[in-house]
Specification:
With about 270 residues, the protein is an alpha/beta fold. About 40% of the residues lie in helices and about 25% in strands. The chain has two domains: about 140 residues, HUPs (Rossmann fold, 3-Layer(aba) Sandwich); about 120 residues, 3-Layer(aba) Sandwich (Rossmann fold). The chain is elongated and about 65 Å long.
Length: about 270
């Protein structure tokens, strides 16, 4: 991660501010650049008729956004000695984030989460859309999370075959940078553990401080969340699995449930 780029979308809410605080500390650890992105929509109903043009309205909104950026800079960033920049875009938040990821070769997106309430369903839809559309890792930070030394990381997975071991390079990088203890948590609805996955993980994680735990649960996401209650894990890591059309229609994905209900920062790695 050193020398790479983190994107932090913001709507200037408390949840987004919590994610930015987390990202700043994360950037210090990894010596990365941060791009702080805000986007807004120019709705037709927000553009008055008469002498005031849409261009004037956009200029005013840009001005207001930069003033909020300056307030964020003064409150959270000044003196942190990180490399950062601000970015403004017009359009849907998800489209702006995807464009910025592609244009800036972003290596990690850090976003806020509101928890499991009604508003979380709205905020979570943007986060899930981003996770679906981009290939770089996404970290979802709950509003009450505070950055701390990442002493313990839990990587949770099911018995479905892990296709590409290179996708775990980010996990290994984090474990070694933070000198973390790693728990490999296998949740399965069958008897036994996938030997393919176990051999792959043992080879990939050679030389790290890790332990292996297996629990049985028909609902993988429920099994993960129930197991972690009361545990002192600092970061939960999960693979976003590819689902076929019928799986997408008839069930919540594991990723969706974890995004909406995890009480700790969640790092989502992409399977493909």
């Amino acid at each position: 991660m050193k020398g790479k780029t983190i994107l932090v979308p913001t709507d200037f809410s408390r949840n987004a501010e919590s994610a930015l605080k987390y990202a700043i500390e994360f950037a210090k650890e990894f010596k990365t650049r941060i791009i702080i992105l805000h986007s807004y929509r120019l709705l037709q109903t927000a553009v008055p008729s008469g002498d005031i043009s849409p261009f004037s309205i956009k200029n005013q909104w840009d001005k207001d956004t930069w003033e909020k950026f300056r307030q964020l800079e003064k409150k959270l960033i000044k003196g942190s000695e990180i490399n950062y920049e601000f970015e403004v875009d017009v359009g849907f938040a998800s489209d702006a984030i995807i464009s910025s990821v592609e244009a800036n070769n972003v290596n990690l997106v850090i976003m806020g989460s509101a928890g499991a309430g009604t508003m979380s369903q709205v905020l979570g839809s943007t986060t899930l859309k981003i996770i679906d559309k981009i290939s770089c890792p996404v970290m979802v930070v709950p509003s009450n999370a505070e950055y701390c030394n990442v002493g313990k990381i839990t990587f949770a997975y099911d018995n479905k075959k892990i296709k590409d071991p290179k996708k775990l390079d980010v996990l290994v990088d984090y474990v070694r940078t933070f000198n973390s203890q790693l728990e490999i948590l296998n949740i399965n609805s069958e008897d036994g553990v996938s030997q393919h996955n176990l051999s792959l993980l043992e080879e990939k994680l050679k030389g790290t401080d890790c332990k292996y735990t297996t629990i049985h649960n028909e609902d993988v996401s429920e099994g993960i969340l129930n197991y972690l209650k009361g545990k002192s894990t600092d970061l939960l890591v999960a693979l976003k699995r590819d689902h076929n059309f019928m799986e997408k229609v008839f069930r919540y994905s594991i990723t969706r449930k974890l995004v909406l209900h995890s009480e700790m920062p969640l790092l989502v790695l992409h399977e493909s």
